[in-house]
Write a structure and sequence with these properties.
Helix content is 33%, strand content 21%. By secondary structure, it is α/β, with parallel strands linked by helices.
Protein backbone atom coordinates (compact mmCIF):
# COMPACT_ATOMS: atom_id res chain seq x y z
CA UNK A 1 0.00 0.00 0.00
CA UNK A 2 1.38 3.41 -1.01
CA UNK A 3 1.64 6.23 1.60
CA UNK A 4 -1.28 8.13 0.10
CA UNK A 5 -3.96 5.41 0.62
CA UNK A 6 -2.60 4.83 4.15
CA UNK A 7 -3.07 8.51 4.94
CA UNK A 8 -6.56 8.45 3.48
CA UNK A 9 -7.54 5.46 5.67
CA UNK A 10 -6.05 7.11 8.76
CA UNK A 11 -7.89 10.34 8.01
CA UNK A 12 -11.15 8.44 7.60
CA UNK A 13 -10.68 6.64 10.91
CA UNK A 14 -9.98 9.92 12.71
CA UNK A 15 -13.07 11.45 11.14
CA UNK A 16 -15.23 8.54 12.34
CA UNK A 17 -13.89 8.84 15.89
CA UNK A 18 -14.50 12.59 15.95
CA UNK A 19 -18.01 12.08 14.62
CA UNK A 20 -18.78 9.55 17.37
CA UNK A 21 -17.42 11.89 20.01
CA UNK A 22 -19.58 14.69 18.68
CA UNK A 23 -22.69 12.66 19.47
CA UNK A 24 -21.60 11.83 23.01
CA UNK A 25 -22.74 14.21 25.75
CA UNK A 26 -19.77 16.44 26.56
CA UNK A 27 -20.00 15.70 30.28
CA UNK A 28 -19.93 11.95 29.55
CA UNK A 29 -16.57 12.21 27.83
CA UNK A 30 -15.01 14.40 30.52
CA UNK A 31 -16.21 12.81 33.77
CA UNK A 32 -13.47 11.55 36.08
CA UNK A 33 -14.08 8.56 38.35
CA UNK A 34 -12.99 10.44 41.48
CA UNK A 35 -15.54 13.20 40.87
CA UNK A 36 -18.30 11.55 38.88
CA UNK A 37 -21.04 12.89 41.18
CA UNK A 38 -20.11 16.45 40.20
CA UNK A 39 -22.03 15.89 36.96
CA UNK A 40 -25.26 14.92 38.76
CA UNK A 41 -28.19 17.33 38.90
CA UNK A 42 -28.52 18.74 42.43
CA UNK A 43 -32.28 18.18 42.44
CA UNK A 44 -32.19 14.43 41.76
CA UNK A 45 -33.54 12.19 44.52
CA UNK A 46 -31.27 9.35 45.61
CA UNK A 47 -33.78 6.87 44.19
CA UNK A 48 -32.95 8.14 40.69
CA UNK A 49 -29.25 7.27 40.97
CA UNK A 50 -27.09 4.28 40.09
CA UNK A 51 -24.39 3.96 42.74
CA UNK A 52 -21.47 1.49 42.80
CA UNK A 53 -20.96 -0.22 46.14
CA UNK A 54 -18.80 -2.90 47.71
CA UNK A 55 -19.78 -5.71 50.05
CA UNK A 56 -17.39 -6.23 52.99
CA UNK A 57 -15.44 -3.26 51.67
CA UNK A 58 -12.44 -3.78 53.96
CA UNK A 59 -12.15 -7.56 53.51
CA UNK A 60 -8.80 -7.94 51.73
CA UNK A 61 -7.57 -11.04 53.56
CA UNK A 62 -8.69 -14.64 53.77
CA UNK A 63 -7.86 -17.83 55.60
CA UNK A 64 -5.96 -20.23 53.33
CA UNK A 65 -7.51 -18.53 50.29
CA UNK A 66 -10.87 -20.06 51.23
CA UNK A 67 -12.93 -17.64 53.33
CA UNK A 68 -12.77 -14.00 54.30
CA UNK A 69 -11.56 -12.04 51.30
CA UNK A 70 -14.20 -10.10 49.34
CA UNK A 71 -12.24 -7.29 47.67
CA UNK A 72 -8.97 -6.81 45.78
CA UNK A 73 -9.04 -2.98 45.86
CA UNK A 74 -8.35 -1.13 49.10
CA UNK A 75 -10.93 1.37 50.37
CA UNK A 76 -8.86 4.29 49.03
CA UNK A 77 -8.60 2.57 45.63
CA UNK A 78 -12.34 1.92 45.64
CA UNK A 79 -12.98 5.61 46.33
CA UNK A 80 -10.83 6.68 43.39
CA UNK A 81 -12.56 4.12 41.17
CA UNK A 82 -15.95 5.67 41.95
CA UNK A 83 -17.37 3.45 44.71
CA UNK A 84 -19.72 5.48 46.89
CA UNK A 85 -21.37 2.81 49.07
CA UNK A 86 -19.22 1.03 51.64
CA UNK A 87 -20.10 -1.97 53.79
CA UNK A 88 -17.83 -1.81 56.85
CA UNK A 89 -17.83 -4.76 59.30
CA UNK A 90 -16.27 -4.23 62.73
CA UNK A 91 -15.36 -5.89 66.01
CA UNK A 92 -14.95 -4.05 69.31
CA UNK A 93 -11.67 -4.85 71.09
CA UNK A 94 -11.38 -3.00 74.38
CA UNK A 95 -12.42 0.48 73.22
CA UNK A 96 -10.99 0.13 69.71
CA UNK A 97 -12.70 -1.01 66.52
CA UNK A 98 -11.07 -3.50 64.17
CA UNK A 99 -12.19 -4.30 60.62
CA UNK A 100 -13.20 -7.95 60.33
CA UNK A 101 -15.16 -10.31 58.15
CA UNK A 102 -16.84 -12.53 60.72
CA UNK A 103 -13.93 -14.28 62.47
CA UNK A 104 -11.32 -13.21 59.88
CA UNK A 105 -9.16 -10.28 60.99
CA UNK A 106 -8.65 -7.79 58.16
CA UNK A 107 -5.45 -6.27 59.58
CA UNK A 108 -6.71 -2.70 59.83
CA UNK A 109 -8.67 -0.46 62.18
CA UNK A 110 -11.84 1.52 61.64
CA UNK A 111 -9.79 4.65 62.33
CA UNK A 112 -7.74 4.01 59.18
CA UNK A 113 -10.84 3.39 57.06
CA UNK A 114 -12.51 6.50 58.46
CA UNK A 115 -9.41 8.54 57.60
CA UNK A 116 -9.63 7.30 53.99
CA UNK A 117 -13.33 8.19 53.74
CA UNK A 118 -13.09 11.64 55.32
CA UNK A 119 -9.87 12.62 53.51
CA UNK A 120 -11.57 11.77 50.24
CA UNK A 121 -14.61 13.92 51.05
CA UNK A 122 -12.37 16.85 52.00
CA UNK A 123 -10.60 16.56 48.63
CA UNK A 124 -13.76 15.86 46.60
CA UNK A 125 -16.62 17.95 48.05
CA UNK A 126 -18.97 17.24 45.12
CA UNK A 127 -19.17 13.56 46.16
CA UNK A 128 -21.14 11.85 48.90
CA UNK A 129 -20.74 8.50 50.63
CA UNK A 130 -23.15 5.94 52.04
CA UNK A 131 -21.47 3.88 54.75
CA UNK A 132 -23.10 0.83 56.30
CA UNK A 133 -21.56 -0.03 59.69
CA UNK A 134 -22.20 -3.47 61.18
CA UNK A 135 -20.99 -5.27 64.28
CA UNK A 136 -19.72 -8.46 62.65
CA UNK A 137 -18.18 -10.29 65.60
CA UNK A 138 -18.64 -10.43 69.35
CA UNK A 139 -16.67 -7.91 71.38
CA UNK A 140 -13.37 -8.87 73.02
CA UNK A 141 -12.71 -7.47 76.50
CA UNK A 142 -14.93 -4.42 75.88
CA UNK A 143 -14.50 -1.30 77.98
CA UNK A 144 -17.39 0.48 76.26
CA UNK A 145 -20.29 -0.43 74.00
CA UNK A 146 -20.02 -0.93 70.25
CA UNK A 147 -22.42 1.96 69.61
CA UNK A 148 -20.50 4.37 71.82
CA UNK A 149 -17.17 3.41 70.27
CA UNK A 150 -18.48 3.98 66.73
CA UNK A 151 -20.20 7.23 67.57
CA UNK A 152 -17.24 8.67 69.43
CA UNK A 153 -15.14 8.21 66.31
CA UNK A 154 -17.80 9.66 64.02
CA UNK A 155 -18.20 12.69 66.30
CA UNK A 156 -14.70 13.84 65.31
CA UNK A 157 -16.10 14.74 61.86
CA UNK A 158 -19.23 16.86 62.50
CA UNK A 159 -18.82 18.69 59.19
CA UNK A 160 -18.77 15.43 57.20
CA UNK A 161 -20.99 12.92 59.04
CA UNK A 162 -24.68 13.75 58.72
CA UNK A 163 -26.43 13.91 62.10
CA UNK A 164 -29.85 13.21 60.53
CA UNK A 165 -31.53 9.88 61.25
CA UNK A 166 -33.00 9.89 57.75
CA UNK A 167 -31.53 9.61 54.27
CA UNK A 168 -30.80 12.83 52.38
CA UNK A 169 -33.62 13.65 50.00
CA UNK A 170 -31.58 14.98 47.08
CA UNK A 171 -28.07 15.00 45.68
CA UNK A 172 -27.67 18.57 46.93
CA UNK A 173 -28.56 17.50 50.48
CA UNK A 174 -25.98 14.71 50.38
CA UNK A 175 -23.00 16.37 48.69
CA UNK A 176 -19.80 16.55 50.70
CA UNK A 177 -21.13 14.30 53.47
CA UNK A 178 -21.20 10.73 54.70
CA UNK A 179 -24.52 9.12 55.55
CA UNK A 180 -24.25 6.20 57.97
CA UNK A 181 -26.56 3.20 57.80
CA UNK A 182 -26.40 1.95 61.38
CA UNK A 183 -26.57 -1.86 61.39
CA UNK A 184 -25.87 -2.16 65.10
CA UNK A 185 -27.86 -2.03 68.33
CA UNK A 186 -28.56 1.18 70.25
CA UNK A 187 -27.36 3.47 67.48
CA UNK A 188 -27.85 7.19 68.10
CA UNK A 189 -26.21 8.35 64.85
CA UNK A 190 -27.16 7.49 61.29
CA UNK A 191 -30.13 5.91 59.56
CA UNK A 192 -31.50 3.07 61.75
CA UNK A 193 -30.93 -0.24 59.94
CA UNK A 194 -30.63 -2.78 62.74
CA UNK A 195 -34.12 -3.64 63.95
CA UNK A 196 -35.93 -5.15 60.99
CA UNK A 197 -32.85 -6.14 58.97
CA UNK A 198 -33.57 -9.67 57.77
CA UNK A 199 -31.07 -12.40 57.01
CA UNK A 200 -30.41 -13.95 53.61
CA UNK A 201 -33.45 -12.59 51.80
CA UNK A 202 -35.06 -9.48 50.25
CA UNK A 203 -37.01 -7.05 52.42
CA UNK A 204 -38.00 -3.43 53.05
CA UNK A 205 -36.64 -1.62 56.08
CA UNK A 206 -37.74 1.98 56.57
CA UNK A 207 -36.98 3.93 53.39
CA UNK A 208 -34.72 1.14 52.11
CA UNK A 209 -35.34 -1.95 50.04
CA UNK A 210 -32.64 -4.57 50.48
CA UNK A 211 -31.83 -7.61 48.33
CA UNK A 212 -29.23 -9.62 50.26
CA UNK A 213 -29.80 -13.26 49.43
CA UNK A 214 -26.23 -14.43 49.97
CA UNK A 215 -26.40 -18.21 50.60
CA UNK A 216 -27.51 -19.54 47.24
CA UNK A 217 -28.00 -22.94 45.65
CA UNK A 218 -27.48 -21.79 42.05
CA UNK A 219 -26.16 -18.74 40.21
CA UNK A 220 -29.43 -18.52 38.28
CA UNK A 221 -31.27 -17.93 41.56
CA UNK A 222 -29.01 -15.00 42.41
CA UNK A 223 -29.36 -13.48 38.96
CA UNK A 224 -33.14 -13.50 39.42
CA UNK A 225 -32.79 -11.85 42.84
CA UNK A 226 -30.70 -9.08 41.30
CA UNK A 227 -33.15 -8.60 38.44
CA UNK A 228 -36.08 -8.45 40.87
CA UNK A 229 -34.30 -5.72 42.84
CA UNK A 230 -33.63 -3.78 39.62
CA UNK A 231 -37.39 -3.84 39.05
CA UNK A 232 -38.01 -2.48 42.56
CA UNK A 233 -35.45 0.29 42.02
CA UNK A 234 -37.17 1.31 38.78
CA UNK A 235 -40.19 2.42 40.82
CA UNK A 236 -39.82 5.38 43.25
CA UNK A 237 -41.28 3.44 46.17
CA UNK A 238 -38.12 3.52 48.28
CA UNK A 239 -35.47 6.17 48.83
CA UNK A 240 -32.75 3.61 48.10
CA UNK A 241 -32.53 0.05 46.86
CA UNK A 242 -29.51 -1.90 48.13
CA UNK A 243 -28.90 -4.65 45.59
CA UNK A 244 -26.22 -7.08 46.77
CA UNK A 245 -24.55 -9.00 43.94
CA UNK A 246 -22.36 -10.69 46.57
CA UNK A 247 -23.08 -14.27 47.60
CA UNK A 248 -21.62 -17.73 48.12
CA UNK A 249 -22.67 -21.13 46.81
CA UNK A 250 -23.86 -23.52 49.52
CA UNK A 251 -23.09 -26.77 47.70
CA UNK A 252 -19.73 -28.49 47.97
CA UNK A 253 -17.32 -28.69 50.88
CA UNK A 254 -16.07 -26.25 51.75
CA UNK A 255 -18.77 -23.98 50.30
CA UNK A 256 -17.73 -21.96 47.25
CA UNK A 257 -17.19 -18.57 48.84
CA UNK A 258 -17.20 -15.05 47.38
CA UNK A 259 -14.56 -15.34 44.64
CA UNK A 260 -16.13 -18.23 42.75
CA UNK A 261 -19.66 -16.84 42.16
CA UNK A 262 -18.21 -13.34 41.66
CA UNK A 263 -16.34 -14.48 38.54
CA UNK A 264 -19.61 -15.48 36.90
CA UNK A 265 -21.87 -12.75 38.29
CA UNK A 266 -19.59 -9.80 37.49
CA UNK A 267 -19.28 -10.89 33.87
CA UNK A 268 -23.04 -11.33 33.64
CA UNK A 269 -23.58 -7.92 35.25
CA UNK A 270 -21.25 -6.19 32.80
CA UNK A 271 -23.22 -7.66 29.89
CA UNK A 272 -26.55 -6.78 31.47
CA UNK A 273 -25.50 -3.18 32.10
CA UNK A 274 -24.28 -2.76 28.54
CA UNK A 275 -27.65 -3.95 27.24
CA UNK A 276 -29.85 -2.17 29.80
CA UNK A 277 -28.23 1.15 30.73
CA UNK A 278 -31.15 2.66 32.63
CA UNK A 279 -30.70 0.66 35.81
CA UNK A 280 -31.08 2.27 39.23
CA UNK A 281 -30.13 1.51 42.81
CA UNK A 282 -26.99 0.78 44.79
CA UNK A 283 -25.21 -2.16 43.12
CA UNK A 284 -23.03 -3.84 45.76
CA UNK A 285 -20.36 -6.26 44.57
CA UNK A 286 -17.61 -8.54 45.78
CA UNK A 287 -14.28 -8.04 44.00
CA UNK A 288 -15.30 -4.73 42.44
CA UNK A 289 -13.06 -3.63 39.57
CA UNK A 290 -12.41 -0.12 38.32
CA UNK A 291 -13.91 -1.02 34.93
CA UNK A 292 -17.15 -2.41 36.37
CA UNK A 293 -17.41 0.49 38.80
CA UNK A 294 -17.22 2.96 35.91
CA UNK A 295 -19.79 1.00 33.96
CA UNK A 296 -22.15 1.28 36.94
CA UNK A 297 -21.79 5.00 37.62
CA UNK A 298 -21.99 5.87 33.93
CA UNK A 299 -25.55 4.51 33.97
CA UNK A 300 -26.45 7.90 35.51
CA UNK A 301 -25.55 9.68 32.26
CA UNK A 302 -27.25 7.52 29.66
Amino acid sequence: MTPKPKLQILSSLIAVVLLLLAFLPLEYARIDASDWMAALDDTLPLSALTIPGTHDSGALYSIADVAGKCQSLSVSEQLRAGVRFFDIRLQLRGNKLAVVHSFVDQMTDFADVLDDLTDFLHDHPTEFLLVSIKQDADAKNPTTTFAKAVEQMLSAYPDLVRADRTLPETVSDARGTMTVLARYADAQVGVPAYDGWQDNTSFPIGDLYVQDHYAIDAITDKKQDIMDAFAVAAEPSYALTLNYVSCYLTHGFPPLYAATPAKTLLGWLETHLSEHGEIRGVIICDFMTSALCEQIWRCNFQ
